[in-house]
């Protein structure tokens, strides 16, 4: 037997199995019992929240052999036909594929005829994705809604209520479907797993419910994928391995680091994203979306957001840690970075520069400049507020020791900053390891091969050597080794990086 998708198999078939839309279900039941049905309904809300399912259940309730009822039997020929989409008088029209006026014209011609089937009491028109109809089609539909035929009910389902003309809205009773909450999805997934003889741990269920983001259809499709990939014994670890980590959590984590001005943490985080194979251009775009949501939340305009209660709560906790002004700045910086990443092949550097700019201490934040500017800013000296200690003047005959190089490392970095800020972002991750026979050895962590290659590009190498010569009064060459080294105490590193980028 062909595999029946779980979301079809477990689609709600009566009012009592509709999940998460109790007020709407109750209002419809009342209308059925009191014979106060409207001619036209608008079911508005996110995808996968039960709009079409409820429209079909309404059609069954109106046409069940038991009579108009709030408990359609689901077994009589009409109920079965409606369930299978075979009832000729329950007409489903997908406006996403039939946008045209022809369909609506046909609808207008046929709408005044009685139901074709004897057993059918009410014709029901279900127009899915109704916002996709053309203006002409809306106008034609409006004429029908203005003089609604007897024994006919229209249900317009839409994910974008703002695109439905007000003239149509005013003719319909509107129901706003909520996103389905994580606990509601969890409960349903558990019930489905039980019926399918699938064992699953509660963390896996929670993970699936969160990934589904309020959409039951997605939740069941994810479960389907997981079962076919991993079998009937599911764990959180398998789910994670099979479906990948949710990006939103990652974005929130990155933003929290930026807000806390934890530069080291943020750079390490970007390193992890890169190592995981994430496309930083896409991360940048997602980050912008997320920042926009945060800004709305911090301006107390969160009700405009189309988000689950859980995501809203998570975002609110991030928004509470910062201000609207800071968020606007982040948006400006990442919007520029997003632009720059389109033409600049060094996506990671562009991304890191944006993060560096945002992690600078607030009072000393430099005027925002475009990353493009920064990247090309080879010769523009920047003011330094607190110059790091210069090395004592060295007699050219005096031997240069590693201790001297180490002591004056920050002085050197400041010089680099004045010459080429971009180079600084590379050198920030390096630290002097040794100096012998005119060669300075720099150490970079193993995952920083990209930084190493950039540092050794002739242009950058010449600049570094030129500065070393200027400071120590002799030719100093350098090499870069990639090897793990014990992390410096985070505070210490963050502090000097902050000082370096200040002013
Ligand atoms: Zn029935």
What does this structure look like?
With 503 residues, this protein is of the alpha/beta class. It folds into 4 domains: 6-176, P-loop containing nucleotide triphosphate hydrolases (Rossmann fold), CATH 3.40.50; 182-243, Orthogonal Bundle (Helicase, Ruva Protein, domain 3); 247-376, Zinc Finger, Delta Prime, domain 3, CATH 1.20.272.10; 402-501, GMP Synthetase, Chain A, domain 3 (2-Layer Sandwich). Helices cover 53% and strands 10% of the residues. The protein has 24 helices and 10 strands. It has helices spanning 6-9, 22-33, 51-63, 77-83, 101-111, 135-146, 166-169, 182-195, 202-212, 216-230, 236-243, 247-259, 263-275, 280-298, 309-319, 324-343, 347-359, 371-376, 402-407, 409-419, 421-427, 449-456, 458-472, 490-501; strands spanning 40-44, 90-94, 123-128, 152-158, 173-176, 199-200, 233-234, 431-436, 439-444, 477-482. The strands form 3 sheets. It has a 5-stranded parallel beta sheet, with helices on one face. Strands 8-9-10 form a 3-stranded mixed beta sheet. A two-stranded parallel sheet has the order 6-7. Helix 9 (202-212) packs parallel to helix 11 (236-243) and helix 20 (409-419) crosses helix 23 (458-472). The longest helix is centred in the middle third of the chain and has 20 residues, at 324-343. The protein starts with 5 loop residues before the first helix and ends with a helix. The model is unreliable at 364-369 and 374-386 (pLDDT under 50). Zinc ion (ZN) is lined by residues 64-66, 72-73, 76, 78-79. Zinc ion (ZN) binds next to helix 4.
